[in-house]
Specification:
Rossmann fold, seven-stranded mixed β-sheet, about 240 residues, globular, 2 domains, alpha/beta, six-stranded antiparallel β-sheet
């Protein structure tokens, strides 16, 4: 299959073979990415056997690892192509912002740096969706990029960081405005190449706490040393 461009996308642009999501992510690429450390972070906080609503589940990179640990997962994504790769979980095709299942879960996940969107209305709506779906005794786990997340990783990827059998390189990070990064990342696997260009907004600690509180959530603790993962509970 030849190269294909997807853009202009709503929140990013991607090039390469196969289908793309509205924010420019390559479905074939994301179906190959390993789960990384996210399942371990989640398992330290969420009790075994709990029900989890995973917002922005993508192709199931984290979903499948959580299913193997015995969690009951409902996977939500706005890309039907991504959801078609998810196996073993109930799937819901929807935007996060508009989601209203009329159900509550032991835990709600908002991972993959979705909070770093530059659209404040989308950002606030996603966090409100977390609050809408979490049980009163449950918890919300949110992942975000730190203030220097991209810059600190450019050195790591200058020679082509590898995730499983996938080469990854952050090509450029341009600060077009204070707190805003225009980013371009390249990936390579089995001779195929993809690019992803997008804009991200820094979320400082104080702003994160404000966003959570406005949605009816209280920050309990930071789950990682770099403060990229946080736990919040209903107020």
């Amino acid at each position: 299959m030849g190269e294909r461009a997807h853009g202009p996308a709503r929140r990013g642009e991607g090039t390469g073979p196969g289908a793309f999501t509205p924010d420019g992510n390559a479905v074939e690429l994301y179906s190959r990415l390993p789960a990384g450390t996210e399942p371990e972070t989640i398992a330290r906080v969420v009790p075994p056997g709990a029900s989890i609503l995973e917002l922005g589940a993508g192709a199931g990179r984290v979903t499948h690892a959580l299913l193997e640990r015995g969690y009951r997962i409902v996977a939500v994504d706005e890309s039907e192509e991504m959801l078609s790769r998810v196996k073993g979980a109930r799937t819901v095709h929807s935007s996060i912002e508009a989601l209203d299942l009329g159900e509550r879960f032991d835990a709600v996940l908002l991972a993959s740096h979705l909070l770093n969107t530059v659209d404040p209305s989308s950002r606030d709506a996603m966090v409100r969706s977390c609050r809408r779906h979490v049980a009163d005794s449950g918890r919300v786990l949110v992942e975000r990029q730190g203030d220097d997340w991209f810059e600190s990783r450019m050195a790591m990827t200058s020679a082509g960081r590898t995730r499983a059998d996938i080469g990854m390189r952050i090509v450029s990070v341009e600060r077009s405005a204070p707190g805003v990064a225009d980013v371009r990342i390249e990936y390579e696997a089995d001779g195929a190449r993809w690019t992803h260009s997008f804009r991200a907004w820094d979320v400082p600690d104080a702003e994160l706490e404000r966003i959570l509180m406005a949605a009816g959530l209280r920050l309990v603790r930071y789950l990682t040393d770099d403060h990229s993962w946080v736990e919040a509970v209903p107020v």
